[in-house]
Amino acid sequence: RRGAGGGAPPAGGGEEEEDDLGYRLFPDRKKKPQGFLARSLFTFHNRCQLMLRMSLETNPYAQLLLAAMKQSGCTVFNDRHFSCENCDGCVSGGFDSATSQIVLCQNNIRQQSHMNRVVAHELIHAFDHCRAHVDWFKNVKHLACSEIRAANLSGDCTLMNEIARFKFGLKAHHQTCVRDRAIRSILAVRKVSRETAEKAVDEVFDACFNDLEPFGRIPHNKTDAKRAYKDFLNRDRYNANL
């Protein structure tokens, strides 16, 4: 089971193609929305909504990304841009560019710390979608770049998370984690070979790993993320006074 985030499930969802571009992982995307009563009785859904609200209100990774999205003209609204749904067992979340919605896998996210990472991971995809013309479905390099950035900046590869996965690396361990998780994310949502995924990641790795917007630094823990958020707010005020 992947720790945080899947890539973008696809636009559309109409004609069945040989590669469904990841929608098979998010079966609720094709269902009619449940009624309020059915959803309110569903414990997973309630828990997901509560953890999402907690993440958006208290997690500095999410707070910084929400502020950056707003500054870029893509204000995020809880009810509109997040959807708690049941997903395939291998994913925790995804970004649906067709609806500009972040899907949170309510059956797979059971802890607040996990929710925090998934929300941050998918908000980075949403931020990239807002600021750049990302071709999620036809250009695997674009997908690879956003997956590298999401793994690098969301907390996916913090030392504590890697220790929890029983991975104890030495030199350049963070970069190795980012590369591995980006490749895994691509393979989870696209029917491409491992060789294709690895090639795409390697070709864009340096440029995308060093693109630290909007954090300005790699946030290795919550303290780093708080500093980055504070710096972002101060930078915004400084620019407003120019």
From TrEMBL:
Protein name per its UniProtKB record: Mitochondrial inner membrane protease ATP23
GO molecular function: metal ion binding; metalloendopeptidase activity
Keyword Protease found: yes
Biased composition (Gly residues): 1-13
Keyword field contains Phosphoprotein: no
Annotated GO biological process: mitochondrial protein processing; mitochondrial proton-transporting ATP synthase complex assembly
Domain of life (superkingdom): Eukaryota
One cellular-component annotation, GO: mitochondrion
Family: Belongs to the peptidase M76 family.
Coiled coil: none
